[in-house]
Structure formats: structure tokens, C-alpha cells
Amino acid sequence: MKFPVFADLEPLIARGEITHFSFDVFDTFLLRRCALPVGVYERAYHHLPTADGDGQKARNYLQYRQNAEQEARYEALEYHDRHDVSISDIYRHFPPQPFGLKSSQRELLAVAEFAAEKELCFVHDQALALYLALQQAGVKVGFISDIYWPGDWLADLLTHCVPGLRWDFLYASCDYAKGKGNGLLELYLTEQKVKPQQAAHIGDNTSADIKPARALGMRSFYCPQMSPAEASVYQRESHVRDLFCTSFGVPLHQDGGVRALRRRVMAMLPEGNPLRQIGALTMGPVMLAFDRFVEQRLAALQAEPTADGAPRRVGVAFLARDGFFPLRVWQQRGHPPAAYLAINRRVAVIAGSYDHTGLERFFHAVPGVSAAVLEGFFKRSIPAITQYFARQPGGTASGKDFARALPALLSSDELLAVTDSVRASLLAYLRRQMPDLDSYTDLLLVDVGYGGTVQHALRKVFDQQGLPIRLHGAYMILAGEGFSGLADDDSAVGMLSDEVIAPHTSLALRRNVAILEQICSAPEGSVSAYDADGVEIREDDPRDPAQLQLCEEIRQGTYDFIRQHQALPPALWDHVLADPAHLRVWGSIALMRLLLVPTDDELLLLKDIKLDVNLGSQVQLPLLDVPISEALAAGKSALSLFRANSRLMWPAASLAMVSPQHGYLYSLFTAGLMPGDVFGEARCGSASLMLITDGQPQMVTVSCLRTAENLLRLRIPVSAGGTKTTVAIPLDELAPQGQIQSLMWSGGKTAAKAMADSEPVLLPLGQIQGANVTVERGLFAASGPQPHLLIEVPAGSQPVGLLTITARLEGQGRLLALNDQALAG
């Protein structure tokens, strides 16, 4: 929302070309502390004398209010040829009884809504500056608004927001039963005796403000509320809020002015750099909210009493590498100095291990390991571990298998030799980074998240060393289950915790958090060890310099957001920071939206980022794996697809790249809103097929499955063993015509493992042939008796292969889930 600069208008004013200047009111001169204008209706409920704080009643009130206005406007236009309505017209269609009021008390409804307007409205600083400058220059200024509030009510609201405000004219559409596009602007020009060429109007709506003014020959200034890119983000955030936050008592539309602040700041920033736009529009409010959250936590700790009454000495430390970005924001906002600690998961796990238990749990969650990975992890070669991997197929093992074998591969003496060395160097490093460490009563650790690996490890190290320092974690995302063994005097809090989201939502966020880690991560290699003086020794950074620059551009956009926020008039904008509860909620919503419902622009810009696995190795994995996503989507139900996403580092984005529908459905899945009987596969019959291997036919019967899209899916197990097989499918049992949508091939030691194969491949549709069937690019139609589709499957290296065929059958209608019955309903 960019306003004209008064200096540019001065020459026009001096020449008498602008003598009158009118302002639209809402979303131009006045802003609201709510995400959408309907937030006023939601808040109005709480101003009723009968309100009881029930959030659901407030949402019901909002919907009744919307319906009432729709009915009032229809009645006014249809029966009275009036183009506008008043607040009393609207509330004549509103049922007061559900809210404990009688019909004779309808006036209380309007009073409550007006009280909500006064509570939520505040003046736009740029609009006020322009208004006062024009007034000082002798221009006649005032307001023209399409609004249901009568003129005297509107005047009361304006002076409430700007005490002492004066104007030369004020027109409210409901007083004249006509809007700006239906004669109100003409009336204004006539009554004020001003020529259109000497009048200017400013507003946020092209239809209501700009086109009518230009049609009359007036100057017009368009100040849109937001860009199309912003609108897309805000719409998705509303979807995220509805899915994940309403059950936690979060009002649908109250945001304390966070969205108004974002719109205001975005209008101040230059356009043209889409990465900086991501940094400002999304990461800006996220990082501002997290910084405010940490600031509050620090203040609360400092205020806690000590046993001897002395003030607490609380140190603050941001944990590398993901704490790099939050630390920069902390510094930019002028907070007290804080340490930056390069302690990664590998160092923390080793330092916190006094037996095999911690290492076993750690490796149990790692998908796969090798001798090279373990040598990088322990920073030494351990013969028994090297020999173990020499016996494994391909020299690799699952983390679970290695965890079970670890106690026999690493003796207690070898373990202590490794861990004692790491602990000693870690303590030297901590004292180097925090010279006053031993005088602290408390240490606040700040990190992106999640389960407090470093916090738990430091607790063990401090206890062993006799350091009576309480440890506290302030995390962006908190995995509550990771802190079940927290020491009594320690604490852990999260901006996104079970105070604002459900535990299963937190789990979904952590499965998609890799993109956040890359944005927040320092542009340097992970710490490998510390020398005798406590100086960091770092790994080489395997990430592409282009990726590091991309993430830096996003961070720069956030710094721009913070800088512009700091430049705003405090008296008009500090209310956003003064309401940390709303800032926390809407900062959390902005982050959830990025992780779970990315926009097309974000998918395009971020698709090539890779995850630095960082276990002492140089392994990187793509965040978006489109080929794997497409293959999985082709052969699995939506529910199975969303559950089987361990191969995907950013599943929400990978699935959104398959189609917008997949991305949207994934967000429903993470909210637990995908019923299995709708989005799973349902058995709808069976079919007898023929497998031909080395010229030998074999009849098999497979289940026919219906997908949520009403497609037919067949899964055909094939004994691979290096031999090609042809699958013959009789169309007489299915349908005479249709289209093969996809052929997916997967493999494994057993049929179950083939089903769970995380790296299936799509076979080309061109290899489909037919006997008495015409086939072209998957389309098939029977052309003679006993028609069969013939599909040659590859000779896989696994003992069992699985061919998954997905097809749309023509002329069959809805496929009904009736066991062993006909396919068509």
C-alpha cells in the first residue's frame, strides 16, 4: 500500500489543479488489528452484554453477521433499488436469540460492533501524514466511504482513532443509499462545488475507488492493500489457521495488527527480488515473533527469585548452525550480547554418552550408515565397526541394525576414550565462548528445535563437572516428547508447542523442517571438533555456493523487514510487539504455511536446495525429489503416499510439485482430516491375469482396488530373479476401453518390502501392447474377441517385483467397494 508523496503533489496544488482531496476510510486511512475485515464481527460478539467468551459462539456470530448483510443488500437492491444499506438494515436480518438477546434489543448488536471497530481500528501513518500535509497546504480534505456506518458514527470513529482530526466533508454511502460507483462521487462534487479536474481521490479498491473517480475526470491514486503474491500467501495462511489452530482457542481473524504490519512493511520494500520477498513476507514475521518469544523468556528467567535473593545471571547462547539466523535478528533488534555455540548433534550425542544407550537411540533414528559415515562420526577408525560394514551387502546397514550391533562393536573402554575426549574439548570451548560461564545461574539455549539434544547433553556434562547452572531451551519448534526426562530445575519452551498446535501437527512440521534449517543455517561447515585451546575445527561445507547465496538473500529480506519495522512511528505501530500472544500465533501460522503449503513461487525458487545431512559426512539429499514423488503418487493411495514419505526431505513441497491437489491433500492429512474409507484404497472385486515367463503361462488372481479418484488399481507380484515377464490382462474382466494412467515398478526381498520400496520407478506407457486391442499412449479400446493388454515388465535385481497399474475405465461409472462383486455401480 504505497501512498503518493506530498512533494510530488505540491506543484499541482500550487497551480490550483488540486483543490479537494478525498480519502477512502477503511484499508486506506484506517487499518484494523485483524487478519480480515470480518474479524470485526468476530470481535463484536465479545462486546455484547451477554457474551461468555465462547469462541465457537463468536464464530457463529460472524457467520450470522455475514448472512445478514448479504440478505440486507439483496433486499435493498431487489425491492427498493437502493445500492447501499445501513447497519440497522443489516441487523434487521440478524437473529439475536442465539446470543441471549431479544428482538427488541437489536440496537445492542450495532453498538457492540461499533465498539469492536473502535477497539480494532487505528490510523495508517502514511495516510495521516499525507492528510495533514494536504490540509496544511490549504487543500480541502475529507472522507468518502462505501460503508454501512452513518456519517455521525463514522465521524466518531475517525476522531477516536485520531483525536482532534478535522475535515471539510464526510460522505458515508449508507446516508445516501448510493456508493461511490453509483452516484456518491457525483453528489460530492456537486455539493462541494468542485470541478472533477480539481478533485483527487485515494483508495484501495479499483472498482469502488479508482474507476468511478477516473470516469468522472477526477485524479485517482490507487493504494492496493497487497500484491497478488501477498494475497496468495495470506489465503494459504487462513487455510493453515483453520486446520491447525482453531481447537486451541485461537480466534479466526484476530491478529493484533500483524497482517496490517506486514502489508505496511511490504509496501515500503523494493520489488524485483523474489527471494527477498520470501524473507520479508514470510520469514520476517516468523523471526520477529521468535525473537520476541525469546526476549520474553529471558525476561521471565531474569525475574525468577534465587534462594539467597541475589539477581539471576542468565547467559544467552544461540546454537549453531541453525541458530545463526535467529542470532542475527537478535543482534539487529538491539538485545544484550549473546554467545554463539557451535555444538551439533554429533558432538552433543557423543559428549552426553556415558554408555551405549544414547548412541543406540541416536542411530536407531538414522535411515542408513556406512563405515565412512561412522569414521566421520567418531573421528577415528574403529576396527570392529569397519569389519561389520565389510560384511554388509553394499557396505551399508540401516540405523536400526547398526544400533542393535553397536554394543558388540564398541567396547566400554573405547566408548569412554571417545566421549571423555569430546567432553573435555567441549568444556574448553564453552569457557572460551562464554568467559563468565561459571558465574551463571542460568543458561538460555536458543535454537530452531526440536528435542533438545544439545540441552540434554550439556545437562549431563554440567552435572558431571559440578556446574550448578540451570539449563533452559527456547525453541522455534518444540518436540514435547523429547523433554520427558528434563531435570526438575531446567525448562524447555517452544514458539510452536502444544500451547498452539497439536502434537501430531508438531510431528508433521518436523518432517518438513529441512527447508527452515537450510534458511537458518550459517554459511559454513559444521563443527568437527575443538582443539586444545577450545577453538572450533570445522568440516568442509559441501553445499553449493549458489545455495548459500540463495539462503542469504532470504535472510536479507528478513533483515529488510526488521529494519523497516523499526523505522515505523512507534506510537502507531508498537502495539504489534505489545501483543506477543497474537504475534506468536501468527508468526507460527506463517511458518506452518511455508513448511506445509508452499506457493508455486516458493517451489520454483527453492526446488534445488539440498540438505546437508551433517553426521560427520559430506552427504547431501535433495529437499524436493519430484521423480520419486511422482512415482509414489502413481502407485499408492493418498494415505499410503503421505505416510510413506521417509524418502522425501520436504514432503509437502515434493508432493505439491506432483499437483496442487496433492499438496492440498497433504495439508489435510497432517491435520488428521483424511478419512481412510474415502482417501484409501477400497477392494472392489478381483481379476484373473496371466503371467508369461520364458514362454510359460501362469494364471494369478489379484484384487481390484478403487482409488479416491475412482481409478482402478491392480498390484501384480512378479517373481523377478533376473527374468523378463509379460503380464496379460483380459479386458473382458475389466472394461472394453479406458486409459492406463501409470505403470509403477518396485522391488524387494518380499512382496511386502516391494510394496514399501521408497524408490519405485515409472515405466513408459509406450511399452503397453495389445492383443485384439488398439493402444496409443495409454488409451486402449478392445477391437476383437478376447482382448488383452500386454505389458512387459523389467528383469529386476530383487527377488520380488511389483507392477502397479492405475487405470481409468470408461463407461463404468462409480466403482463401488463391494467385495468380490462387479466393478461398476
Automatic annotation (TrEMBL):
Annotated protein name in UniProt:
Haloacid dehalogenase superfamily, subfamily IA, variant 1 with third motif having Dx(3-4)D or Dx(3-4)E
Checking CDD domains in the record gives: HAD_like (cd01427)
The source organism is Insolitispirillum peregrinum
Signal peptide residues on this chain, from the entry's feature table: none
Q: Which domain of life is it from?
A: Bacteria
InterPro entries given for it?
A: HAD-like_sf, HAD_sf
